[in-house]
Each structure stands twice: as C-alpha cells, then as structure tokens.
Amino acid sequence: MNKRVVVTGGAGYIGSHTVVELVKAGYTPVILDDFSNSTKEVLSGLKAILGFEPALEEVDCSSRTELLQAFDRIAAEGTIDGIIHFAAFKAVGESTQRPLKYYANNIASTVHILEASETHNVSNLVFSSSCTVYGQPDTIPVDEEAPVKGAESPYGYTKQVCERIITDFVASGSPLKAALLRYFNPIGAHPSSHIGELPLGHPNNLVPYLTQAAAKLRDPLTVFGSDYPTPDGTCIRDYIHVMDLANAHVSALHWLSEQENACEAFNLGTGHGNSVLEVIQAFEQATGVPVPHNIGARRPGDITAIFAEASKARHELSWTCKYSLEDALRDAWNWQCTLID
Ligand code: WQD
Fold it and tell me: pTM surpassing 0.90?
C-alpha cells in the first residue's frame, strides 16, 4: 500500500502543487483543509491532472476537536506515514492588522498537529516555514545558520514560534522527526494551468498582482520603492517556481524516512536574487505581454534584499531547482489566462 501522507492546507497554493507531486512519487495524500483561503475549484483542477480527486477531510486545523477527530478517522483506515503541515494564514501585511487571527490559527494548528502525531505514532513531519524567520539578514545569500532575528511581522513570528515548538517537541524524546522548510518567494503555477495561485481578493504578492495588471484586471502595478541600496533601486527576492518547491517536500519526506532522528531547517530558494524591475522585464520577455507599472513609495515592513544559500537542501535532500524565473512567470501568465476566460 502506498505511504499515506496527511497534507494540511492541501487545497492551498503550495499544498495543491505538492499533492500532485506526492501522487507522482507514489504517495497517497489525504487533504485536510477548511477552504478559508482556497476554493473547491482546486479539487477539480487536481482531478484534471491526477485523474481522480484526492481524499479530503474538511477540517479547521485550529479546532483541536475537529483536527483530532479527523486524524482518528484517517488512522482508522491505515497507517499515517507522514504529515505535511501547510495550513496557516500567510499575508504579512494582514498579520500586522490582525495579529490575533494569525497567532490563534498558525500556532494552535501546529500544536494540534503535534498532538495528533503523538496519538497516532506519526514519525515524519514536514513543516511549511518561511525565510521571513531571518528578517533582514546581515549577509546574503542567507544560510540556515544565520541568526533568527526579531520577526518583521506577526506572520513571521508565528513561523519562528512554530519552528521552536516543533524543535522542543522533538527534543522532548518524541519519536517524531521534522524537516522545517524555509520558503523564499514561491511563484508560478502547474504547467498544465489546471491549478495555480488563487489569491482571494486584492493580491498582496508581486506576481499575482503583476499578472492581473498585465491582464488589465487591475490598475498598473506599483513598484514599492526604487530608492533601495540595490543596483536598480528596487527590492531583491529569491523567486522559486512552485513546482520546484512542491518537489522539495517529496524530497524532504524521503530524507526523513532515512533518518533515525532529526529536526532540521532547509532553505528552499534558487540561490539567485532578482529585483522587482528584473521580474517585470523577465515577464515581458517570457510572455511578450507588457506590464503596466509605475514607481511608488516603499511598502512598510519590506526588507531590501534576501536570497537563499540553498546548498544544504541540494546536498542533504538531493534536491535542485529545475525551473527558471522565466518558466515560472510564463506558467503564472498561462494560469492567469485561464482565469480571464
Ligand atoms: C516581493 C517584492 C515588494 C507587490 C513573501 C510572502 C511571505 C514569505 C516571503 C513565505 C517586494 C514588491 C510587491 C506589489 C511591489 N513567503 N512588490 N508591488 O514581501 O517578499 O513576502 O515572500 O512564507 O509569506 O508574502 O513578497 O510578493 O509581497 O513582494 O513592488 O504590488 O515585490 O515590495 O519587494 P514578500 P511580495
């Protein structure tokens, strides 16, 4: 029987792409999602790619009772070999306006997941963390040994706290092994365009806003600041194709299965930095579609530059990025075009 993996937030952007790669790698995913930040259209997109709809439990992971009962049902059908925990709110800006929503959901759901793993002897946990745990690093590219600095937002702080909770739980003698995956900037969509990033409402992130502006669905893109100490004055980030990110989760599960005990953080980035203006230029070159944009004021809370030193994941997880920035932007545009129709 295929190894069964519970994927919390599996109907979300990164979660749904990871579900596809899990099935391709021979795992059987079980999605836990409450659709508070995704839509059920994702399930038909997954069916178009996979030929079937993955098993689903509609569950609010921040509700202890709901979550533990869902795990009881899933465990009754057989062993749970692993958990990938995506379910969390992730809008940096919103988290500063509604911190309690983020603390209650992101932290409580992680504690409940650990309780469920203990009850059902699950030994492998992959946790969706973030490069925001580094704040503005002193040196870039940033590696996993860099100090975890004061969080720049309640969102980033929930990731720091959850990493610490998991670390303490593993250190307490639990048989659980954990991989803490620190994402940089996920972008793009599945090459089939059956699934992609479904920002509900006004997109906060660069690429979904950029594609909507290019599709003339939004006002021109505002570049948040061109007076940063970077070559072209705009902020630098490490933009990674969501498919490469999804594959890293499969690699992390495989790595965990080979460990006696483990609680390790891994940077998941391309190792290259691109500025906002470079992303705009790469999009126009990759698609031939102009991006209406103007230069505006800096966005509070933005850091100047960050990109990954990703050799640890490359060596220990035997994982490398296969897609380029242009591939990701082209896939993002092709996905956007399915939404316009
Ligand atoms: C990228 C750059 C903006 C919108 C994200 C996630 C966070 C974490 C890290 C996973 C910045 C600029 C943006 C716009 C712009 N990922 N920008 N105009 O802030 O790096 O954070 O990655 O945990 O969850 O939010 O990503 O896409 O918002 O911004 O100029 O309309 O694009 O200033 O320099 P960010 P982003």
Answer: yes
